[in-house]
Design goal:
- By secondary structure, the protein is an alpha+beta fold.
- It is 55% helix and 15% strand.
- It is built from four helices and eight strands; from the N terminus they run βββαββαβββαα.
- The strands form three sheets. The chain has a four-stranded antiparallel beta sheet. It has a two-stranded antiparallel sheet with strand order 1-8.
- A hairpin with a 2-residue loop joins strand 2 and strand 3.
- The N terminus is likely disordered.
């Protein structure tokens, strides 16, 4: 029963390659400044179920964060298994008029455990950062060669349009990727649940079997005791009957002997 009761799906789903990362740990968040842009399925933030997309992070372990410090504060000691407390807020209600704030405790996860997903997050983050800053160095003057007076204005507008399109494309890719990961997570969770159910059913069957064996042993012990008792009673009855027969036979012999002695006396 102890063997069956072990967690046979306790290990996380494997990734295809270990990958190489700048950090050893992760909390599974993709940020836009202090705003949660995406959550990595299977990561600590996702598993907590207390942090959502578009939430705002205000503090980490009691320290106020800024867009420049938030990554270092989340990384912290960069030791997998260590905990951190994140203060987040969400907009709720009609037209998001109300704001709720809460503290969420997360446990940093080893990046290698979800290596491929972390690497994809890094790539997506780099793409969005490049898209957000690309306009500053983009040369699109050739599109305005026929209108020199509008060159600067058109260049800025086109750069912003390109930035928005690239960011939208990256967001669309991330959304599709999230859907795929969520589907994989759902299948994995379903498998875990199914195995857990089978494990529970197997444990119940073994418990019933154990109880039946114990009941059978008790029944056999009772029957054996009854058989021994019956055998003892029969043996006692046989001994008593044999003793009675011996007494009758002895009495008969004594009567025969007495008769013979009386007959001998008469002859004399």
């Amino acid at each position: 029963l102890d063997t069956v009761n072990k967690d046979v799906v306790g290990q996380r789903a494997p990734t295809s390659s270990p990958g190489k990362h700048a950090s050893r740990s992760t909390v599974g968040l993709m940020l836009n400044g202090r705003v949660v842009d995406h959550l990595l399925p299977g990561g600590p933030a996702y598993i907590s179920r207390n942090i959502n997309k578009n939430d705002t992070i205000w503090m980490v372990d009691g320290t106020d964060v800024t867009p420049d410090t938030i990554h270092d504060l989340l990384l912290g000691s960069d030791i997998p298994g260590t905990q951190l407390t994140v203060r987040v807020s969400s907009r709720v209600g009609l037209n998001n008029l109300f704001e709720t704030t809460r503290d969420v405790v997360l446990t940093r996860m080893a990046a290698e455990e979800i290596a491929d997903k972390v690497r994809m997050f890094e790539l997506f983050t780099q793409l969005k950062e490049r898209a957000a800053h690309q306009g500053k160095g983009t040369d699109v003057s050739t599109f305005n060669a026929m209108n020199p007076t509008a060159r600067q204005t058109g260049s800025n507008r086109l750069s912003k349009d390109l930035d928005k399109k690239q960011i939208a494309l990256v967001d669309e890719v991330i959304d599709l990727w999230d859907i795929m990961l969520n589907q994989d997570a759902d299948r994995w969770n379903q498998m875990v649940n199914n195995v857990g159910l089978m494990q529970g059913e197997s444990l119940n069957i073994l418990v019933d079997l154990r109880d039946s064996v114990l009941k059978l042993k008790t029944q056999l012990a009772g029957e054996r005791e009854a058989s021994l008792q019956l055998l003892a009673e029969r043996e006692a009855f046989f001994l008593a009957e044999r003793h009675q027969h011996a007494l009758v036979h002895r009495k008969a012999l004594e009567e025969v002997k007495k008769g013979m002695e009386e007959e001998a006396d008469q002859r004399h």
